[in-house]
Write a structure and sequence with these properties.
The chain is α+β, with helices and mostly antiparallel strands and about 190 residues long. The protein contains 6 helices and 8 strands; from the N terminus they run αααβαββααβββββ.
Length: about 190
């Protein structure tokens, strides 16, 4: 673990991974987030497992509720909130392609490069401890997705990197991308 934290949260992260553990902890301990639809429902399972027809049906109902036929398949590991950020695989696509999306994420999670990167960051990584989630992909407008990420620069203390992409539902779709680095709330580098 990156640092000491509350035991319930720590146990949940150890069990489900950083991303999935934190989301599950919030769902359990701050139910109004789920009730207000701030947290999108997701199905979480171990890398060695899959999803059956009943689960796919529930996923389809969740997608219908959010007016989308697109899903996001994410992977999570217990260090992915403090050292494997951006390293854990994610796939986006149609609900009808969910089995293939899950298969691709599983293959990517077993890439030895992730373990090497985790070791370089001082962390531990075992692909057999990875969890996978499938959630409805929330879109803005017709086939438009806004993806963003804010991370602390790994080598420059106090520098935050902000990346924003407007584009189609697939990561391969061409779209407009913007990136800025901030130091003490001032833009340091930008491609805007």
């Amino acid at each position: 673990m990156c640092e000491t934290m509350g035991s319930e949260l720590e146990l949940t992260i150890r069990d489900l991974g950083g991303k999935h553990g934190i989301l599950e902890f919030l769902r359990k301990n701050v139910p109004e987030l789920a009730k207000e639809r701030i947290l999108v429902p997701s199905i979480v399972f171990r890398i060695g497992d899959g999803i059956n027809g009943r689960v796919k049906e529930a996923l389809g109902l969740a997608c219908e509720f959010f007016c989308t036929d697109n899903v996001v398949v994410r992977s999570s590991e217990r260090n992915d909130y403090c050292g494997l950020i951006d390293a854990m695989p994610t796939e986006v696509g149609k609900l009808s392609e969910v089995d293939e999306l899950i298969r691709r994420v599983k293959v990517q999670c077993r890439d030895p490069g992730i373990a090497a990167y985790s070791k370089q960051e001082g962390g531990y990584y075992d692909p057999e401890e990875v969890t996978i989630s499938v959630s409805p992909l929330l879109t803005v407008g017709e086939r438009t997705v806004v993806r963003g990420l804010v991370t602390e620069h790994p080598n420059l203390h106090g520098v935050s990197c902000v990346d924003l992409k407007y584009g189609g539902v697939n990561h391969s779709d061409i779209g407009d991308s913007f990136s800025c680095d901030f130091l003490n709330e001032s833009v340091v580098v930008s491609n805007i």
